[in-house]
Amino acid sequence: EGKGKKRNPLHDFKKTGELMLIKVNKKLEVKTKLLNTTEQCAKRCSRNKGLSFPCKAFAYDRVTKRCHWLSFNSLTNGVRKKQDHAFDLYEKKDYVRNCIIGKGADYKGTISVTKSGIQCQAWNSMIPHEH
């Protein structure tokens, strides 16, 4: 079961149509390349292939078929959102997800308080609870 079926690389991304991210902080990195499909962009982003930074998102220009790999996402400081009909934004779910799946070992989100507002315990701390 499942043999011969390839996993769609877009499964790991959250899509927002007609949106582009603009970097205000000049230290944030972007790399672009012509690619025919969003699947190809997603595969490269997931593998960080040919990138000098961890890819957190990509924007695909449907008009020019150009992929823009981003070292940031919509939650990053120094970034602003821009409505743009040519682009679709794809953000890695691991970086924008506000929930923990399983034991949370791969969680990279930004939530640091409990539902009731209590500050979370740091991973490297054994106080107030042991792991």
TrEMBL record:
Keyword Disulfide bond: yes
CDD domains recorded: PAN_AP_HGF
CC terms in the record's Gene Ontology section: extracellular space
Single annotated GO MF: endopeptidase activity
Keywords per UniProt: Disulfide bond, Kringle
Domain Apple: 5-94
Keyword hit for Transcription: no
Domain (Kringle): residue spans on this chain: 98-131
Protein name: HGF factor
Name of encoding gene: Hgf
